[in-house]
C-alpha cells in the first residue's frame, strides 16, 4: 500500500469544501493546481487509507433479476451505482456519480490526531506571503493582529511574517480560490504551529467543518 502524501490530505479537504458538488478528476486537478494523473493518484491513496469511500457500490447477487445469468463471482459493479444506505461518517447529500466521497469521521480523526505528525511543520525565513494559521482572514475577528503572523511564502502575498512551508506547493493558489478550503488549511496550520489558544480553537473548529454530524469536540483551554 502506498504511503499517504500531503497532497492526498489536500484533496480530501477540497472534497469537504465542495460538499455535494459534482466533480471530475480534471476539475479537481485544475482547482488544486495538480495534474489529472496526480489527482487520480491522490484519490487512490485516499481510498486505500480509508479517508475516502469509493462510490462504485458492490451489488449483491440476489439483486440480479430472475433469468439473468451471472458469473460465479459473488459481486458485480454497476457503472452508475444506485444510492446505498449511508455509513457512519458519510455525507447524506453525496452525489453517487462522483468517483469517491469523503469518509468524514475518518478524515476528522486523522486531521486532529495524525496529519500534524505525518506532515510536520517546516519553518522558513521571514517572507512576504499568504497569511495562514491564526493570521488567516477567517480569524480576523477571533485573534488580534500582531507581529507573530505566519505566512506561506508567495509572490502574490500581501503580509510579511514567519514563513511556513505549505502542506503542498499548490496550497496558496488553491486556498485563494476557495474560502472554506483556506479556513481548513489555516486551522490545520494552527494545530501544527499555533500556541495553546490557537490549537484549542483549531481542535474545536476543524473537526466541526469536516464532520458536522460528529460528536461535539471537548472544550479546551484557550490559555497559553
- End-to-end Cα distance, whole Å, is 40 Å
Helix content: 25-40%
Annotation field: number of helices: 8
Shape: globular
Q: Biggest sheet, open or closed, and with what strands and sense?
A: 3 strands, mixed
Mean pLDDT: 83
As for the number of domains, it is: 2
Give the C-alpha Rg.
Answer: 20 Å
Secondary-structure element pattern, one letter each: HHHEEEEHHEEEHHH
What structural category arises from helix and sheet content? alpha+beta
Kindly state the number of beta strands.
7
Uncertain segments: 57-92
Strand-residue fraction? Answer: 5-15%
Structure in words:
The chain is α+β, with helices and mostly antiparallel strands. It has 2 domains: 6-116, no CATH class; 121-210, no CATH class. The chain is built from 8 helices and 7 strands, in the order H-H-H-E-E-E-E-H-H-E-E-E-H-H-H. Strands 5, 6 and 7 form a 3-stranded mixed β-sheet that branches. Strands 1-4 form a two-stranded antiparallel ribbon. A two-stranded antiparallel sheet has the order 2-3. Helix 4 packs antiparallel against helix 8, helix 6 (171-177) packs across helix 7 (179-193) and helix 7 (179-193) packs antiparallel against helix 8. It is globular. The N and C termini lie far apart (40 Å).
Set out the fold topology.
Blueprint: H1 6-18, H2 25-32, H3 36-49, E1 52-54, E2 58-59, E3 76-77, E4 100-102, H4 104-113, H5 115-118, E5 123-132, E6 150-153, E7 159-164, H6 171-177, H7 179-193, H8 196-210
Parallel strand pairs: 6-7
Antiparallel strand pairs: 1-4, 2-3, 5-6, 5-7
Provide a compact summary of the structure.
The protein has 224 residues and is an alpha+beta fold.
Amino acid at each position: 500500500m502506498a504511503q499517504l502524501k500531503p497532497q492526498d490530505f489536500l484533496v480530501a479537504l477540497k472534497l469537504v469544501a465542495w460538499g455535494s458538488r459534482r466533480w471530475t478528476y480534471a476539475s479537481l486537478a485544475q482547482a488544486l493546481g495538480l495534474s489529472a494523473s496526480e489527482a487520480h493518484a491522490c484519490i487512490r491513496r485516499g481510498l486505500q487509507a480509508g479517508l475516502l469511500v469509493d462510490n462504485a457500490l458492490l451489488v449483491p447477487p440476489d439483486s440480479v433479476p430472475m433469468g439473468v445469468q451471472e458469473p460465479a463471482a459473488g459481486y458485480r459493479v454497476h457503472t452508475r451505482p444506485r444510492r446505498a444506505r449511508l455509513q457512519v461518517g458519510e455525507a447524506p447529500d453525496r452525489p453517487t456519480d462522483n468517483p469517491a466521497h469523503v469518509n468524514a469521521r475518518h478524515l476528522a480523526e486523522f486531521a486532529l490526531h495524525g496529519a500534524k505528525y505525518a506532515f510536520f511543520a517546516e519553518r522558513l525565513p521571514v517572507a512576504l506571503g499568504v497569511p495562514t494559521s491564526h493570521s488567516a482572514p477567517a480569524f480576523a475577528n477571533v485573534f488580534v493582529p500582531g507581529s507573530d503572523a505566519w505566512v506561506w511564502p508567495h509572490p502574490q502575498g500581501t503580509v510579511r511574517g514567519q514563513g511556513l512551508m505549505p502542506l503542498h506547493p499548490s496550497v496558496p493558489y488553491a486556498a485563494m480560490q476557495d474560502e472554506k478550503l483556506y479556513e481548513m488549511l489555516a486551522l490545520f496550520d494552527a494545530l501544527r504551529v499555533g500556541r495553546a489558544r490557537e490549537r484549542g480553537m483549531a481542535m474545536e473548529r476543524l473537526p466541526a467543518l469536516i464532520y458536522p454530524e460528529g460528536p461535539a469536540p471537548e472544550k479546551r483551554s484557550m490559555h497559553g
